[in-house]
Design a protein that fits this description.
203 residues; two-stranded antiparallel sheet; globular
Amino acid sequence: MDRARHLPLRPSRRRVLQAGAALAAVPGALLTTGRAGAQERAVDYPPAESAPASTSNYTVSSRPSSYRIDRVVIHVTQETYADTVKIFQNPAKQVSAHYVVRSADGHIAQCVREKNIAWHAGNWDYNTRSIGIEHEGWVDKPAYFTDALYEQSAALTASICARYGIPMDRAHIIGHAEVPGADHTDPGPYWDWSRYIRLVNFA
């Protein structure tokens, strides 16, 4: 996850949320440009549950007409599934991702519509061109990367790639750590990329 203040022309990006961390107050005038006007309840991926992020935590857009979507960015939450959804729904947090995948059963929540720009990558260019998927767990606790999490996430990524013509390879399905300028390590050394890309291609 990545916290951001949203400025009128280009949001700056801040470090990953830490539990209990507070965001410095931002004047209301700076928070109005490009904000979502109303929460949306529909989902782009039918198996997903709608769990809308706060309208303060993403940028309204009309992708892919406004920005081409050509990447999927894989994240690990460093939080529980439930706490991650709550963070995205807290207007003070300035962070979101399009989807969150639960460890125990692979259940998926959609928090930001794909047409909109989630604040997940810590790099504005990559935010505009990517779909961000958070996975419940910690980078140093591989037990969270269950079969169900891999399988359901891979099916989601395959659907995204098919809809936007994204090649199903490691050049286009990347980790947060691979985003230029990222100071994150997720999904970390225990994420099985070979398995994941194989599942995406056979989903």
